[in-house]
Design a protein that fits this description.
about 300 residues, single chain, 2 domains, alpha+beta, globular, 12 helices
Length: about 300
């Protein structure tokens, strides 16, 4: 028997401050009056700026956006963004946020060296069409996308949307280190099947850092739901000291290779060289599995325990 689908995630939404329906021509109130829609597009480069060549590509994606080597932002009251988001992430920007007051809340994160855990681990959290990993055709990299099903009444109006991507930036480093908490929170908001088994609950869910809190706020994940899932959780594991990893890595390098790295640092893009080396060092280590607790609860049962059903 197929699982029960939560229609437009209505059981996760709060009372919308603006009721209405979305049409091809724009956003309309319940009384049929035309209301101005609002969309916000944001990209950010984290460790290194976009190259001059790729910046030319970025400028071709929009004639109205504010574009630098570190940031690309645009807002629309009518119309849409038609740029190639995935390609923009492959060409230099590391994270993307898309907000629309008719329901769109999308986050995309570029991981140049791929996920630090196997496909079987990610499969436990993936939700078809809504929480996905798209691997590059070449190389190890890919893009993680979080885009829950939603419509104009699913979420409340979000204040200060322009500030959210900056708060969410550390999620990328957390994912690179193998932290499963961002994926679990994403599953909570993207899963629509009440009969779906809750994936392994990651350690530290009861201690949300600011980027995790920002993720929960952006998608309006109820505090009660997170707290209930974390009731029997494990403490947050100790993080590996990056400086220690670098010291160990340097000790293993040949003198000639280190001289080449110094030469690279004298180039026009030293931050890009640093970013590539740090990412390589991190991925060269054996990332310890993030501790989790298995559960046999379904999403519906978890929501009932949280008093949300």
């Amino acid at each position: 028997m197929a699982g029960t689908r939560i229609n437009s995630r209505s059981r996760l939404k709060r009372d919308a401050t603006i009721g209405g329906t979305c049409s091809f021509l724009g956003f309309h109130g319940l009384d049929g009056t035309n209301m101005s829609e609002y969309q916000f597009i944001d990209f950010v480069a984290i460790n290194s700026p976009v190259s001059d060549q790729d910046l030319e590509y970025m400028t071709r994606q929009s004639t109205r956006a504010e574009i630098t080597k570190w940031r690309f932002t645009n807002e629309y009251h009518f119309g849409d963004f038609h740029g190639n988001v995935t390609e923009m992430l492959r060409r230099g920007y590391d994270m993307h946020l898309h907000f629309a007051d008719f329901g769109i809340r999308k986050i995309m994160i570029r991981l140049p060296l791929g996920l630090p855990y196997g496909k079987s681990v990610f499969a436990r959290y993936a939700v078809l069409d809504f929480l996905t990993w798209e691997k590059d055709k070449r190389g190890k990299g890919g893009v993680l996308t979080i885009e829950p099903e939603a419509d104009a009444g699913t979420f409340d109006y979000l204040e200060d949307v322009e500030s959210y991507l900056d708060r969410l930036v550390p999620l990328r480093e957390m994912l690179i280190r193998g932290d499963l908490r961002p994926l679990f929170l994403a599953w909570l908001v993207c899963s629509y099947d009440e009969d779906a088994i809750v994936p392994p609950i990651p350690a530290g869910l009861d201690q949300l850092t600011d980027p995790l809190q920002a993720l929960a706020e952006f998608y309006e994940i109820p505090d009660k739901l997170i707290a209930t899932a974390a009731a029997d959780d494990l403490p947050t594991p100790s993080l590996v000291d990056t400086n220690k990893l670098v010291t160990q890595w340097i000790a293993k390098q040949k003198k000639a290779d280190l001289q080449d790295i110094v030469t690279e640092f004298m180039s026009d893009d030293p931050s890009g060289v640093r970013s590539r080396i740090i990412a390589g060092i991190t991925h060269a280590q054996d990332v310890p599995p993030w501790p989790t607790v298995d559960t046999s609860l379904t999403l519906g049962e978890l929501r009932t325990r949280a008093g949300l059903s």
